[in-house]
UniProtKB/TrEMBL annotation:
<dbReference type="InterPro" id="IPR005545">
    <property type="entry name" value="YCII"/>
</dbReference>
<feature type="domain" description="YCII-related">
    <location>
        <begin position="38"/>
        <end position="104"/>
    </location>
</feature>
<protein>
    <recommendedName>
        <fullName>YCII-related domain-containing protein</fullName>
    </recommendedName>
</protein>
<dbReference type="Pfam" id="PF03795">
    <property type="entry name" value="YCII"/>
</dbReference>
<comment type="similarity">
    <text>Belongs to the YciI family.</text>
</comment>
<dbReference type="InterPro" id="IPR011008">
    <property type="entry name" value="Dimeric_a/b-barrel"/>
</dbReference>
């Protein structure tokens, strides 16, 4: 099954930097289970809302949030638990957060 990891940065710092893997180490560990992924530039976002027949555009993500999505990874895993384990070892999980979301397969 496919799982989307939403990589969210912001908030606290790293408690023990010795335990944080590099992104290269994480990518090597994940291997072919990572189908695709990329960094994103949060400041370049446009928020689109449709209200009462009008389209409202706001530059940037919502300012009220402390964490912003700064990247994503698409995984193919046998279970949600496997995807959660991979997310827990992502370098950003040590100072930000990683959301794990199951996707509906194309089958």
């Amino acid at each position: 099954m496919k799982y989307m990891l939403l990589i969210c940065a912001g908030g606290g710092g790293v408690e023990d930097p010795g335990d944080v893997p590099t992104i290269e180490q994480w990518l090597e560990e994940v291997g072919e289970r990572r189908l695709h992924g990329s960094q994103m530039r949060p400041g370049d976002a446009t928020t689109v809302r449709a209200r009462g027949g009008e389209v409202l555009l706001t530059d940037g993500p919502f300012a009220e949030t402390k964490e912003q999505i700064c990247g994503y990874d698409l995984l193919e895993c046998d279970s949600l638990e496997e995807a959660q384990g991979i997310a827990a070892r992502h370098p950003v999980a040590f100072f930000g957060s990683v959301e794990v979301r199951p996707l509906f397969d194309d089958e």
